Amino acid sequence: MDPELEAFLPLFPRSDLTDPVAERGKLARLAAAVPPPDTTDMKIEDRTVTADPQVPVRIYRPHRARGAIVWLHGGGFVMGDLDTEHPWAARLAAGSGAVVVSVGYRLAPEHRFPAALDDAYAALAWTAEHAAELGIDPERTAVGGHSAGAGLAAAVVLRARDQQGPPVRLQILNQPELDDRQETWSARNFTDTPWMTRDKVAATWRHYLGSTPATPYAAPARATDLSGLPPAYISTAEFCPNRDEGITYALRLLQAGVSVELHQWPGTFHGSQAILSADVSQRQIAELAAALRRALAE
């Protein structure tokens, strides 16, 4: 493990997600401890997407932005909100120069699949419909997220393809949670890795799916046809149960004719880029923003 990251391991609380509501408080405290981003050169506004039910979004608007990304926070489908994602959404907007539409989707187990997906897709449709108001080109829209949010992003672009929805320029899948089956090598063997373990991943899927059988819109790794999807930037962490499903998904996209940039970060673990003082975390954040900037400038 990267020694700069290893020094912070005692600060990451242990949890098994048996009580998601209690875990939300832990995540909020961790997010509050992250150094605040510089937001002086952007406008930040809370809005509501008209849907059933309505979806809260927080919009980050840098000066002279040309494109946008619908951004979906992590948290295993059960944790996270607009406030916990604020440090990352603001940094993404600053680093990429894109409008970031951060989505406060509904959480499991109170709201199981497909509630979060419906909210995320409504946010994509809203962003496309309000492109002129946001000052962006509607053809320059991306979708992305961290962890479970990355899994939702993959599902959103599958649904947009299948339903001839808004065009998506790029999908950003950062340490994506894509496969409820947990059959990969990393999913089977990483039982005691920092922050995210095999058992914890299994708990997130139980909360998200309940008794509903998984479909490709719930677990995109189950999709049999990945053709016609937008290009992807996929990043994985070395010591993460989700590592191999992210790499496998990248390979399957390539085999389906989809352009992919894949980055496997050595010495990292799931969520470790929150340790901003580490050089590898700074490079991860900068490269993610750069990938978005390049895609929206093309």
From TrEMBL:
A molecular function (GO) term: hydrolase activity
Domain Alpha/beta hydrolase fold-3: residue ranges: 69-272
Keywords for the protein's UniProt record, in alphabetical order: Hydrolase
Keyword Hydrolase appears in the UniProt entry: yes
Highest taxon of the lineage: Bacteria
Coiled coil: none
Keyword Cell inner membrane (UniProt): no
Pfam families recorded: Abhydrolase_3
InterPro entries noted in UniProt: AB_hydrolase_3, AB_hydrolase_fold, GDXG_lipolytic_enzyme
PANTHER family named among the record's database cross-references: AB HYDROLASE SUPERFAMILY PROTEIN C4A8.06C, ALPHA_BETA HYDROLASE FOLD-3 DOMAIN-CONTAINING PROTEIN-RELATED
Protein name (database record): Alpha/beta hydrolase
UniProt organism field: Streptomyces bullii
